[in-house]
């Protein structure tokens, strides 16, 4: 299926009229400078906090066994896989149903672009990989953005019962003002996110965005089935991500309550850090929010922060492993079809 054509119909420009000058280069440089400063600020925050809490960080690393770390890594990979399946369900409604072996390289390999500052890079890589698999760039982009939005909505649904705990965690942290702002952001976004899951409104929002981007609207409206199927896979992904965290904190948060608390911590962290687009993969914001949630559940701030660093390392390894396996499978299929 080819790309959607750009909407044309602008009046022909008079040759006597000078063309509109391009945007001033200083604006681009200013935006780039702001992003660099923001990224440096986040890195400084992570390093300074880690150095300050290094005793707890070192103790936490020593306390975790290799079987625990491996099991937590597997749970992280399962979470990424579920997110890929949610994306596949949505793109199947927008364009055509993809086989899992075709969808996995597009989503999982393309997701490595999130480690570059600015969320746009993940979408760029996914669009190019999707085009090679026969899906238009526009549909790949829409599918990724819609699933990201549904991920925020699902995360806030899982977070909502623990808003009070999150506020307690913000007070327990050394950055209570920032923590309170983050939790209030979740509270404010919660009803908006729920409303945007309504398929007719979601279809209207997507078509409005496509119009602003000078692209053709959707061929057909987004129905309940892809929305519910995507939400089901996203919820499974959050449960797997919560298991990933719980395996690391079960000595401090045992039992089913500890597991549900871990799901809450990851849901808060992933849903709100999505909006921190200047940070590669929500770096810093995700760790801070997860530590706030874990502190609200009763962990000390140093221990909670140490766990977030371990989680970040394992999720990065999971991203690379999932992308590597998907790319290898895709390359093998291409070689078979060529022979």
TrEMBL record:
Assigned keywords, A-Z: Cell membrane, Membrane, Transmembrane, Transmembrane helix
Domain of life: Bacteria
Start and end residues of each stretch annotated as Disordered: 1-22
Transmembrane segments: 33-51, 71-91, 140-161, 181-206, 227-247, 259-279, 288-307, 313-331
Membrane-topology annotation of the record: Multi-pass membrane protein
Short name of one Pfam family: LPG_synthase_TM
Main location: membrane
Subcellular location: Cell membrane
Key word Transmembrane helix present: yes
PANTHER family, sorted: UPF0104 MEMBRANE PROTEIN MJ1595
Name of the molecule in the record: Flippase-like domain-containing protein
Protein species of origin: Dactylosporangium fulvum
């Amino acid at each position: 299926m080819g790309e959607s054509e750009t909407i044309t119909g602008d009046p022909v420009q008079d040759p006597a009229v000078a063309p509109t000058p391009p945007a001033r280069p200083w604006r681009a440089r200013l935006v780039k400078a702001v992003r660099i400063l923001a990224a440096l600020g986040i890195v400084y925050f992570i390093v300074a906090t880690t150095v300050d809490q290094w005793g707890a960080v070192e103790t936490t690393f020593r306390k975790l066994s290799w079987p625990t770390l491996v099991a937590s890594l597997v749970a992280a990979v399962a979470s990424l896989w579920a997110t890929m399946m949610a994306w596949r369900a949505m793109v199947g409604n927008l364009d055509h149903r993809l086989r899992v072996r075709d969808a996995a390289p597009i989503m999982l390999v393309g997701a490595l672009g999130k480690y570059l500052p600015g969320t746009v890079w993940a979408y760029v890589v996914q669009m190019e990989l999707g085009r090679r698999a026969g899906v238009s760039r526009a549909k790949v982009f829409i599918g990724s953005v819609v699933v990201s939005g549904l991920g925020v909505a699902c995360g806030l649904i899982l977070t909502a019962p623990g808003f009070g705990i999150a506020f307690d965690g913000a007070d327990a942290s050394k950055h209570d003002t920032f923590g309170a702002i983050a939790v209030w952001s979740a509270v404010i976004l919660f009803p908006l996110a729920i409303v945007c899951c309504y398929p007719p409104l979601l279809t209207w929002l997507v078509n409005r965005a496509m119009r602003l981007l000078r692209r053709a609207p959707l061929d057909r409206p987004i129905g309940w089935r892809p929305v519910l199927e995507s939400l089901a896979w996203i919820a499974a992904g959050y449960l797997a991500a919560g298991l990933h965290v719980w395996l690391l904190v079960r000595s401090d948060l045992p039992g089913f309550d500890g597991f549900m608390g871990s799901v809450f911590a990851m849901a808060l962290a992933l849903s709100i850090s999505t909006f921190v687009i200047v940070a590669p993969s929500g770096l810093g914001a995700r760790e801070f929010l997860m530590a706030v949630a874990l502190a609200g559940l009763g962990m000390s701030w140093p221990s909670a922060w140490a766990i977030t660093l371990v989680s970040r390392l394992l999720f990065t390894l999971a991203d690379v492993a999932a992308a590597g396996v998907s790319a290898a499978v895709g390359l093998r299929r291409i070689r078979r079809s060529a022979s």
